[in-house]
Specification:
Elements (H helix, E strand, L loop, with lengths): L4 H10 L24 E5 L2 E4 L4 E4 L14 H11 L10 H13 L5 E5 L2 H16 L3 E5 L17 H4 L10 H4 L2 E4 L4 H11 L3 E6 L15 H11 L3 E6 L10 H10 L5 E4 L10 E5 L1 H4 L18 H13 L2 H24 L5 E5 L2 E5 L8 H4 L4 H13 L2 E2 L16 H19 L1
Parallel strand pairs: 3-13, 5-6, 5-7, 7-8, 8-9
Antiparallel strand pairs: 1-2, 2-3, 4-10, 9-10, 11-12
Helix pairs in contact: 2-11, 3-11, 7-8, 12-15, 14-15
The chain binds pyridoxal-5'-phosphate.
């Protein structure tokens, strides 16, 4: 057994200063048990904890580290930027360059406003949609996670699904009374809602493929239906690409699938990859809607650190590494790892559903495929915990929750993939025993 004594000491110490010892709940390992690792170094595909153990990283900071850790080009750009100041709280060229790069990649996104987290990006998108339509209702889908703003913390995925909370205390009825939650992939429910209340709906928000309840691909035509219904009824379509943006393709999910299928959202939210691991996110979309933001319009939104030069430098140099070759490679790696793990589980007759959408994938320990949150909640989370710990023990770090997607980086080598698949064979046997 690898020693984790230093991580344990840090975690005990952290309890006295940080609730639960962590800055974001899933990191505490509550749902899988055991000691969370405290990390001190990342290089390429690997991360090291305070005890000196190294792991192949299939979390990638939950998405941003698509090019691997401490990529020399990103480090170089960040270093030269921060030598000139960490922040001005004023306009700077880097944010313009990053906005232009986003628009080049996602032409349906005509304007971009930077914020510091995906949560903020979504909050702003919701405010914009309400202001633009003069309506209040927001429709979301159970199991989708859009950050932790009050109005959207209802039947949310990610950490809140991991903790098994329907929603959070502290969020009042008033704050969520204008949020309608529908089952994901339920075409009939969506149609019915629009025929009953279409003229009250400000926006439908969705992940283009949910990846915060595990990975649940949309049924064919689901995103197109949202686009059609919102457009017909004068509501807006908010596509939350915080996770999928610039991960699924050069132009995110929309660039790969939306454009080809002929649908376009009104607003996008981005995060993760566009900050290259720094706190940076964005709301973007049609100029007619975006331009009602202050100072052009009267919809207020602001941030001391928004468009921060160091963060935009990290984001821009990360995006520059994200060329067609990178996407071809991470798609290939994701499939190689996903299929390989599924085979290892099948060899041990472990019931599971390997689910993937683009290069995002996850495993549900349940014999049936999962199409919505209710089905995702039926999985055997105990089996996941055993699998998780066996992988960790064999030097592979995956998200410490059965309700999360796994992330590959372009830094993974053949040897890393071989290690992951070998670890998966051990982990599959551990689940079976
Ligand atoms: N939207 C989606 C789809 C996400 O996956 C996340 C975070 O995982 C968020 C919004 C919230 O982003 P952040 O954690 O940066 O606030």
């Amino acid at each position: 057994m690898a020693t984790t004594s230093r991580s344990q000491i840090w975690h005990e110490r952290a309890q006295h200063s940080i609730p639960g010892g962590v800055s974001s709940p899933v990191r505490a390992f509550n749902s899988v048990g055991g000691t969370p690792r405290y990390f001190v170094k990342g290089e390429g595909s690997r991360i090291w904890d305070v005890d000196g153990n190294s792991y192949v990283d299939l979390v990638g900071s939950w998405g941003p580290m698509i090019a691997g850790h401490a990529h020399p080009e990103v480090v170089g750009r960040v270093r030269s930027t921060l030598e000139n100041s960490f922040s001005f709280g004023a306009a700077s060229p880097g944010e313009v360059e990053l906005a232009e790069e986003i628009i080049r990649r996602v032409p349906a996104c005509e304007r971009v406003r930077f914020v510091s987290s995906g949560t903020e990006a979504v909050m702003t998108a919701v405010r914009l949609a309400r202001a633009a339509t003069g309506r209040s209702l927001i429709v979301k889908f159970a199991g989708c996670y859009h950050g932790h703003s009050d109005a959207l913390l209802v039947q949310a995925g990610s950490g809140i699904a991991t903790l098994g909370l329907p929603n959070s205390p502290g969020v009042t009825v008033g704050q969520t009374q204008d949020t309608i939650v529908l089952p994901y992939n339920d075409v009939v429910a969506l149609d019915e809602l629009f025929s009953l209340r279409g003229d009250e709906i400000a926006a439908v928000i969705t992940e283009p493929t949910p990846a915060n309840m595990g990975v649940v691909p949309p049924v064919p035509g689901f995103n197109a239906l949202i686009a059609e219904l919102t457009s017909t009824h004068g509501a807006l379509f908010i596509l939350d690409e915080v996770m999928t943006g610039f991960r699924i393709s050069r132009g995110g999910w929309w660039g790969k699938y939306g454009q080809a299928e002929g649908w376009t959202p009104d607003l996008f939210t981005f995060g993760k990859v566009i900050g290259g691991g720094m706190p940076l996110a964005a709301v973007g979309g049609k100029a007619t809607v975006m331009n009602i933001l202050a100072p052009l319009g009267n919809v207020y939104q602001a941030g001391t650190l928004s468009g921060n030069p160091v963060a935009t430098a990290a984001g821009l140099s990360t995006l520059e590494l994200c060329d067609e070759e990178l996407y071809r490679r991470i798609d290939f790696l994701a499939e190689e790892i996903g299929q390989g793990i599924s085979s290892a589980l099948t060899e041990q007759s472990v019931a599971h559903s390997y689910q993937h959408a683009g290069n995002l994938f996850s495993f549900f320990f349940t014999p049936q495929g999962v199409e919505n949150f209710a089905q995702a909640q039926q999985q055997d989370t105990q089996a996941f915990s055993v699998f998780f710990h066996a992988l960790l023990e064999h030097g592979v770090s995956i998200p410490p929750s059965a309700f999360e997607a796994w992330f590959v980086s372009n830094a993974l080598s053949d040897a890393d993939v071989a290690q992951v698949l070998d670890a998966a064979r051990h982990a599959s046997r551990a689940v079976k025993d």
